[in-house]
Amino acid sequence: MEYVKGGNLQSYLRKCRPSQQTATSEEILPPSAKDLKMISLGVARGMSNLHTSGIIHRDLSARNILITPDFTCKICDFGLSRDVEGCDVYERTSKKYWTTDWTNNVQLQ
């Protein structure tokens, strides 16, 4: 895997918060509306490419999106991904693999 200088999206957004910046830290400007649009489109295109290839990521979150200084997004951490190529039916397994931060109450039951 290549090194991505910007780090992950979650860390970047946290560093942009005014409350997270100190007098000694370098000031990181919050992303503009154009930058946010580039990030959103990059993630959407990446996910579209995965789904076209028959892959379900199953753990997409800000910490699993690497971001370059020019706001190019790279989806990473395919540990929970699943190749659904050749499957006729999506079946629910008894194993529950997902990030609970983004899970609704019905799935947690």
TrEMBL record:
One of its GO terms (molecular function) is ATP binding. Transmembrane segments: none annotated. Residues 1-109 form the Protein kinase domain. GO terms for biological process: cell surface receptor protein tyrosine kinase signaling pathway. GO terms for cellular component: plasma membrane; receptor complex. InterPro entries: Kinase-like_dom_sf (IPR011009), Prot_kinase_dom (IPR000719), RTK (IPR050122), Ser-Thr/Tyr_kinase_cat_dom (IPR001245), Tyr_kinase_AS (IPR008266), Tyr_kinase_cat_dom (IPR020635). PANTHER family: TYROSINE KINASE RECEPTOR CAD96CA, TYROSINE-PROTEIN KINASE RECEPTOR. This is Protein kinase domain-containing protein. It comes from Mytilus galloprovincialis (Mediterranean mussel). The lineage of its organism: Eukaryota, Metazoa, Spiralia, Lophotrochozoa, Mollusca.
